[in-house]
Structure formats: structure tokens, C-alpha cells
Amino acid sequence: MLGCGTSTRTNVPNYPTRPVELKYYANGHWAVTTSLAGACCDSSGNEFDLYYPTNLGVDGFKHPIITWGNGTHAKSRQYAYFLNHLASWGFVIIATEDENTGLGQTILDGANYMVSANSNSSSIFY
Prior knowledge:
Blueprint: H1 19-25, E1 32-35, E2 48-53, E3 65-68, H2 80-88, E4 92-96, H3 105-118
Parallel strand pairs: 3-4
Antiparallel strand pairs: 1-2, 2-4
């Protein structure tokens, strides 16, 4: 099954042709939960969008964390298809709401937020 519905090589630019490309072109097997800004803030009040497997930690699986910084004047939800796709492969994505990441401090803050959540037994990311 293809990641983009019933698309075929003839109507998708850069359609993958090799086995590894074809495998990861499709969505992964994890159902995805999305939590948009306002539901997640770090101690500095920075808001983030979260994309993560719905059933975190099933069978003891450890989910890698990806931090996402937007391009100038962009929001992470403009990349929602891609971020959901990554989460479907088992990644937890924390995406800043900054329209200008500057030196990347909020990206670092997002990573630290997730590390802290992993240490908090009341967090879904524990």
C-alpha cells in the first residue's frame, strides 16, 4: 500500500523505486496522536506541537525523540503530513511554534522538555 492513497509512479514526482525507499514512503504501523500548541509548554512558556505514537511504549519500545524547528515565518502544522508520517514510524516529535528559530534555543528547550517528561511518572511520555 502506498503512503499517498492510490497514487502511482505516473502521477507522483520522485516516486520511490528501491525497496528501502518504498518501505519508508508508506506510513509506519503506529497510530498517531497529534496535540497542537497550547497543550504543551515548557517552563519558559514556549508552546509546542506534539506528534507521537498513540500507544507509547507498547512491548517496552523506546521511542526516539525528534525536535523540529520551522523555517522563517512558518508553523509546524504546515509540515503536519511529514511530522505525522515520522510519528507513524515510532518517533515522538516536538515541534516549536516559533516563526523564527534564531539560535535554536526553543528547539533545545523542547528536547529538554521531553527528557524531563520522560522522568515524570505522571507524564504520558514517561
